[in-house]
Structure formats: structure tokens, C-alpha cells
Amino acid sequence: MKTDPAQISFDNTANAFEYKSDKDLKKAHFLFSSMGIEWLVRMGTSVTPWAIKMGLPIKGIIRNTIFKQFVGGESLPETAAVAKTLAAYNVQVILDYGVEGNDYTEAELDHACDEFIKVIEYAATQPNIPFMSIKVTGIANFDLLEKLDKSVEANAGSLMKRFVKATETLTEAEKAAWQRVQERMQRICRAAAEKNIGVLIDAEETWIQDPVDVLTILMMEQYNKTKAVVYNTIQLYRHDRLQFLKDSFEAATQREFILGAKLVRGAYMEKERKRAAQMNYSSPIQPDKESSDKDYNEAVAFCIAHIDRIATIVASHNEYSNLYATQLLQQQALPLNHPHIHFSQLYGMSDNITFNLAKAGCPVSKYLPFGPIKDVVPYLMRRAQENSAVAGQTGRELGLIKKEVARRNILK
Fold first, then answer.
1. Rounded to whole angstroms, what are the CA distances from 393 to 33, 35, 129, 132, 266?
2. How far is CA 219 from the centre of its chain?
3. In the chain, what are the domains?
4. CA torsion sign, 336 to 196 to 131 to 188?
5. What is the pLDDT of residues 147-161, one digit of tens each?
């Protein structure tokens, strides 16, 4: 039975945690209680990567705590059990192979590309995996992206024109490396188009984002002619991204492709502010949370107003933003399962949003990373820091878990 958008309640913990056993719910209670302790999070996020690198025997502890809460498994087959559980509650999956920014060899970058394609091929065999996610830093070296971005910033004109000038500053070896990056991206997007799987290109730090944007727009122009295959990620905690979204829409209209837009608030706030202060440039981050929220909700409204040309993923843990999207659809007499709208939250977080949206008939996914523990540690550390740093996030998660624990009367 579908729910009227006006009646969607994100306080319904029976729906939110129905998929969790009593044992798993108690584990989540312990984990989020721990993440509410700032000194413990600070110590854990500094010591854990070092301990993994040194080969200390802590993988078992990680696997049974934070890894199990936020990650689908160490391999593709291990994600199947999680995907099957979610499917029983009409929740889909966005697969994310947890490889990202490092100083990789060309052979390692080629291997990551092959792994991304394996994810696409696997997703195509599953009934509830419509998307997969990639990071360009998995198929391109950070230094090359940074050099390109810096050159783009130094030029005048449109993003595309500035980027063409930026490529002229590369050495012959760097030009060859960039050509290989484009070929890897082509292989991934071609496979996705053939298998009917959406590719979500993750956002990166501001100082490497411009070449990522250019590459993504070029892929959208090629593969998004009749349906959305490629999606760019728009981080609305940046004060320039609402305008970038509108500029991207204008480009999509002129070049006649469907804009794929995954709307997020952002993941690198502290790092961005710290770097801006250290290097004495204006911070790219919004001055306050209210400004970020305002731009995010304006972006949602803009995308839904142009839903014929923009395929949108509302990727948010903010209850109001998700509810607002359903209300906008209702106001425009659009179905909650319109093919150009999708909702998503991270696996292990905001189950109250995900499962109540699913109950209402909204297409909604859990973003499900997977990979060897050593490879997903950076992701896990961000989750721990995010839950500790975002005002009220851990408190909200823990409060909902406590409510469900009390409803079930299981904590003894």
C-alpha cells in the first residue's frame, strides 16, 4: 500500500529497522553510542589507518563493528546477501567499489577500471542494482588531476574552453596519461550503457574537481542522449554549485542530452576549509549550514522543475530535503516513481528515511561500498568523522535506534 507524501513519517522506527535483527540493532546502538564520543573518534581515525598499514591484527574488530555497519562486504559476492535483504523491503542498491585517490601505477589504474566494469556486469545480473558509483581518482592519478585543475583556474572563458587550454600545459607523458584516463572512462560508460546500469561519478576535492566535471559532461553528452546513464555529483556545500547545476542544465539543453545530477551536500568540508586557510584563498564552502540547506533545496526544486531534461538522485540524509522532493512531485502531479527521480542514503545510516520512502513507493537505494578492509578504511574513517562532526547526526541516529530498542524491549 502506497503512502500519500503528506503522510510520510521519518519517525516510524518499526519501518526503519524492520530489516535488522535484535542482535544487529543492539550492535548499531553500541556503535553510534561510541561515535558520539569525540575523543574516541579522533583517536580511532588517526590510529586505525596506521594500524592497518603496519599489519596489526585489528581487521577482525573492524569487520565486526564499523565495517559491518557501513560496508556491504569485501567482495562482490558478499554484497549479494545485503542486496537480497534490502530488496525484500523494496530498497535498491548503488554499488561502490571502494578504491580511491592514491599514487597508483598505470597498471593499477587499468586494474581499477577492469574492476569497475566487473561491478557493472554484476549489477546487470541483479534485480535491484540500477546504479554503480566510481571515483575518477580510482582511474587517474591525483597529481595529474591537480595540475589540470590548476591550469583551468588560470585561464578565462567557459569551463570547456579553459580545459582545452589547460591540456596544452601538459608534458607529452602527461598528455598520454590523460588520454588513458579518458579511454578508461569511455570503457566504463560504454559498458554501463550496454548493460543499462547508471554510473554515478563521485565528487572530489575542489582542487581536482574541474577535470572531473569536464570528463563527466563529455560522457553525458555521448551516452545520455535518450536516457540517463552518466550522473555528475553536485556538492551543494560549495557556494558555487547551484550556479554550476544551472550552467550544466544549459549545456545539456544546447547539446541535447539528459543531465544526470546526483545532489549531495558534501564530504570534504573540514579538509576544504583547512586548505583554504593554509593557502590563503577564499573558502569554497558555504558560510553556514543554512546556506548549504537553502542551495540544496533550491537545487532539488530546479531539477524537479526541469524533470524532462534532468534525471535527479536526491542523495541526502536531511529529512526535510527528502520530504520536500516528494511534496514538489505531488504539487506537479508527478508520480513518486517518476523515471527521472531517485532517492539514496548511505548504507548503515538514515534507515528512517530510506525505508519509509520505500514504503511510500519512492524509488530509493542504499549506497553500498565494498572492498578489502584496507581499501575501504578511508571511507570508514570519513563515516566516523562525519557522524561525529555533523551537528546532531549521531544523536539523531542514536535516538531513533534507542526508540526502536525500547519499542522491542530488547536492551538488557
1. 12, 10, 27, 26, 14
2. 18
3. 102-315 (3.20.20.220)
4. negative
5. 999 998 888 888 889
